[in-house]
Design brief:
- By secondary structure, this protein is an all-alpha fold.
- The chain has one domain (63-255).
- Helix content is 71%, strand content 0%.
- It is built from 9 helices and no strands.
- It has helices at 2-28, 42-59, 64-72, 74-95, 108-116, 119-141, 150-166, 179-202, 220-255.
- Helix 6 (119-141) packs antiparallel against helix 7.
- The protein starts with a helix and ends in a 6-residue tail after the last helix.
Length: 261
Amino acid sequence: MNMDRNKDRKKIVGVFFVIAVVIGVFFLFPDLLPAVDDAKAPVHTYLSDYYIENSLEDTGAHNMVTAVLADYRGFDTLFETCVMFLAGVTALMVLSTTAKVTKPERSRKERLQISFGSTVLDIAFRIIVPVIVIYAFYVLVHGELSLGGGFQAGALLAIAYMIDRIIPSFNSSLGNLKEETAAVIAGVGVFIYILTGLLPMAGSGNFLEYGKLPFGADTAEQIRQLHGTGILLIEIGVVVCVMATIINILEVVLERTEFDD
C-alpha cells in the first residue's frame, strides 16, 4: 500500500516538475517565440506574401495549403507525424497493462453483434465502406491539387477499417490487425517520410528537397514534377502512419472493452 502511495507521489511530483520547467522556459526566454498578434512577426510581414506569390513555382503544388505543409513546413509535418506515431505507441504501452475484458459465455464476435449488429447497419455499411476507401485514395492523390492530403486520407481509411471491424457480419473483410502490428505499420509510415527526406541528400540536395530526388530529372519541368512526386511520397507516409495509429488505438480499446452494457 505504501509503495503504491510512493509511486503516486512520484508521478505527481514529476507532473509538477514538467509544468515548472515549461513555465520557467517561457519566463527565462520571453523572446523565444513571437508575441501574440505581433504585427512584426515574420508570418505577418513577408512569409504569407511569399507563399502566395511563389508556392506554385517553388513546389509545383496547385494547392497552396499542401505546398506549405509538405514543403515549406516539411519538418513541422514530419514531427506531427511522429507525434501521431508516439500517441499510438503510448496508448499501447499504457493500456496493455490493463487486464482484458472477456466473458467466457460469449465470444467477442457475439458481444460485438449484440451492440452493433443489425440488418440496416449491415446493408448500409457494405455500401459505405468501399465508397470511403475510394474517396480516401482520391483525397490522397488530389491533395496536391485540391483539398485533401495525408492526414485526411489516413483518417478515412481508418474509419473504413473501424466500420468493418465493429460490424461482425462483414467477417472482417479488411482483416484484423493486432495492436502491435498496427504500431509497427505506423512506424513504417514515419520511415517512408524520413526516407523521402533523405533520398535528395544522395543527389547533393538538402533534407526534404524533393527536386533533388535521385530519379533522373534534368529539365525545369521534370524537376517540378519530381517535386510533386516527393510531396506524394511523404503524403503516403502520413497516410500509413495516421491510419495505423488510429487502428492501433481502436484495437487496444476493443480488446479491453465490454459491449454488453
